[in-house]
Amino acid sequence: MNNAELKLYLEQHLANELHWLLRAATEWHVQEELQLQIDGYHVQVYAMDSAFLHARTLFEFFTKSTCNNYYGCNIYGGISLITSTLYSNRSDGWQNCLHAYMMHAQDRSSPSQLISFGSPLITKDLNKMPIDFAKEIVRLWREFVKLLSYNSNPDIQALSKTAEDILNEAIGSTQNVIKSEYVKKRIIPVVW
Fold first, then answer.
1. What's the total number of domains in the chain?
2. Would you say residue 61 lies in a domain?
3. How far apart are alpha carbons 41 and 59 in whole angstroms?
4. Domain ranges, residue 47
5. Residue 48 within a domain
6. Alpha-carbon gap, residue 131 to 42, rounded angstroms
7. Fewer beta carbons below 10 Å: N end or C end of the chain?
8. Per-residue pLDDT band at 112 (split at 50, 70, 90)
9. Range with the lowest mean pLDDT among 41-55, 126-140, 143-157, 171-185?
């Protein structure tokens, strides 16, 4: 990709993934807090599934090299891949569980416990992980901003500000979910 295409990919495609991940994770959080449990109203499940799919796309972008199926962050002037010990293919990593249970019809009767983001270290079922995945993506995105700013190519370096603005806008847009007219009960905000 040339510099203009890299900028467009960041502004349109990566920004879209980040915005919808953070909005979906926030909506999942709102629904978790509200505990409406209305038969036929499954917004929490839709939000969870959406958050997982957008997170998986961004995890692949940050942690895997470009291949025929997806771009990796190394397309940006050869910047290094970003390590996530949480999203790894270790037996207790998020990658295998997210791929197996969200992308394939696996037996879900005895779900794996995943390590939660942050401390203290606790474990959770996959269906309780949207905020954890989103927080790790925000951490990886911030690392991506730094790597862009260190790039020797001035055009790639300039994308650092664009990426930072996209992150700030995506985080800000989560407030629209929290402040929606439908949400009447006090919701504990997510800190990104």
1. 1
2. yes
3. 29
4. 3-104+112-178
5. yes
6. 18
7. N
8. confident
9. 171-185
Please say if the pLDDT value at position 185 is more than 60.
Answer: no
pLDDT at 108 over 90: no
Instruction: Write out the two tokens for 83.
Output: 């390590």
Residue 187 within a domain = no
pTM to 2 decimal places: 0.89
Question: Which of 115, 141, 142 lies closest to 129 in space, CA to CA?
Answer: 115
60-91 pLDDT, tens digit per residue, is 999 999 999 889 999 998 899 999 999 987 76
Q: Is residue 185 part of a domain?
A: no
125: amino acid identity, one letter:
D
Mean pLDDT, the chain, rounded, equals 88
Q: Residues in the chain, how many? A: 192
